[in-house]
From TrEMBL:
This is LysR family transcriptional regulator. It comes from the Bacteria. It holds the Pfam family HTH_1. Residues 10-62 form the HTH lysR-type domain. GO terms for molecular function: DNA binding; DNA-binding transcription factor activity. It comes from Turicimonas muris.
């Protein structure tokens, strides 16, 4: 088969451009990084054009690659729609022997960490498969559109079973090129001289541009601000030197920290941490053993994995838990942190 006819090769190209590297692409497609590189090489050779500048981090599309990207993305979307219809039909036929769990998570988590964990779960429970959706909410869960929600904000509502599994600290990051051009941001009051990259969205714990050093709260007043619902896009913009990203957990930046693409700024001033939890309805948790088993399993194993990512990111920055938590117990006991009463935050004048 000609390489230009290979949908996998086109998917490698699209994912490599969207994630900015082959490491994340290989994880998302469950292939070896070397294999991903070979697919991209062969596609470029077959087309006789260069699609990506791979000597840059993150990858940047060439003029030819930029022209082909949108058509390739639409082609792959059609394939996904077809496979989704086929999958739904197949699941209806096999539902007697195989159970499908419908889950939803935020884009950054869903792309980077959820899929490997679901594959791990299916190895333990071969009779379970998953239908994954992005950016659904509690209303979708209550309405039965999804069965399990991976949330990152605090709430306490009747009718839901909430299983907190990690407290995820957030720090501000910028690229060396940004710092060279605009200077190092060290104090919140200097944020007016900088560009902020801020996460928005309904399923996101909005910071309200408040940061703390563990004692005081201060407001960030960005000179310019770019908001986006896509965490991957915000990280990519930060790597490209567009601005400072401060609205995402430190574990989200391990690759960038390892490769020197991003460095921490703002000293140890940080926004409130994410409160990660696995959520389902009380009805499902009590009546459906497959949901209860999955929720409990994810709470345990994703809790361990999340903490490992946090500790690795901190070690890459030569920081410890005291630098990012007002109370270290919040890291070790996420359930206690999740349900403890909130304190009123007042920004220093």
């Amino acid at each position: 088969m000609k390489k230009e006819d290979s949908l996998l090769a086109w998917r490698v190209f699209v994912n490599a451009l969207e994630t900015g590297n082959l490491t994340q692409t290989s994880i998302m497609l469950d292939i070896d990084p070397a294999a991903a590189s070979r697919h991209l090489d062969s596609l470029e050779a077959a087309l006789r054009v260069q699609l990506l500048y791979r000597n840059r981090r993150p990858f940047i599309a060439t003029a030819e690659g930029d022209d082909l990207y949108e058509d390739a993305r639409k082609l792959l979307a059609l394939q996904e729609q077809m496979l989704h219809r086929i999958g739904k039909a197949a699941r209806r036929k096999t539902r007697a022997t195989q159970a499908v769990i419908t889950v939803s998570a935020a884009q950054g988590y869903g792309h980077g960490w959820l899929m490997p964990r679901l594959l791990e779960y299916m190895k333990c429970y071969p009779d379970i498969t998953f239908d994954t959706l992005t950016e659904r909410n509690l209303k979708d869960l209550a309405d039965g559109k999804i069965e399990v929600l991976f949330a990152v904000h605090r709430f306490n509502r009747q009718g839901f079973v909430i299983k907190p599994y990690a407290t995820l600290p957030c720090l501000a990051f910028a690229s060396p090129s940004y710092i060279q051009q605009y200077g190092m941001l060290e104090n919140p009051q200097d944020s007016a001289l900088h560009v902020g990259l801020t996460r928005s969205g309904n399923n996101f714990p909005i910071s309200k541009d408040l940061v703390t050093n563990g004692t005081d709260f201060k407001a960030l007043s960005w000179g310019k601000e770019i908001k986006a619902e896509n965490s991957i896009l915000l990280k990519k913009l930060a790597v490209q030197g567009v601005g400072i990203v401060f609205d995402l957990p430190v574990g989200f930046f391990i690759d960038e920290l390892e490769n020197g693409l991003l460095v921490p700024v703002l000293n140890n001033w940080r926004r409130t941490p994410f409160m990660a939890s696995v959520v389902t309805t009380e009805k499902l948790y009590k009546s459906d053993e497959r949901i209860k088993t999955f929720v409990d399993w994810m709470t345990l194993y994703e809790g361990k994995a999340s903490n490992q990512r946090t500790l690795k990111a901190l070690s890459l920055m030569n920081k410890n838990l005291r630098d990012v938590f007002t109370d270290e117990e919040d890291f070790y006991h996420p359930e206690q942190a999740f349900f403890k009463s909130k304190r009123t935050k007042k920004a220093a004048v």
